[in-house]
Amino acid sequence: MKIKYKIWIEKDGKVLFGRGRDDILKAVEKGQSLNTAAKQLEMSYRAAWGRLKASEERMGVKLVEVGAGSRSIQLTAQARAIIARFEQLERDVQKLLATAEKDFRQLTRKEGRS
User: Fold this and answer.
1) Which comes out higher in pLDDT, residue 113 or 75?
2) Which DSSP string do the residues of 20-51 spell out, in sequence order?
3) Terminal Cα-to-Cα distance of the chain (whole angstroms)
4) What pTM value is reported for the model?
5) Which domain, by its residues, includes 56?
């Protein structure tokens, strides 16, 4: 038995942040390039850039900034904080669901014996 879930944050029906944006930002941080990140995630540069820009506009915060005099980009402090909080939220939900799964398994075993 497994409880499935997917978490994202939205405002007015539009995605602000979720696993996809988290993956893009972590790949950007690793490679310091949106192009490299997009290739790693097997998506187009345009799609990756569009998602980041949409999140920036919807949240009203800058997530990435271009390095001075270079083509590299890096995450802002706010982006790192958002990633950390989102990933903590996912861990918290995973713990809650693990407990719920255990409860459901026990309930279904009891029902099966009756």
Assistant:
1) 75
2) HHHHHHHHHHHHS-HHHHHHHTT--HHHHHHH
3) 20
4) 0.85
5) 8-113
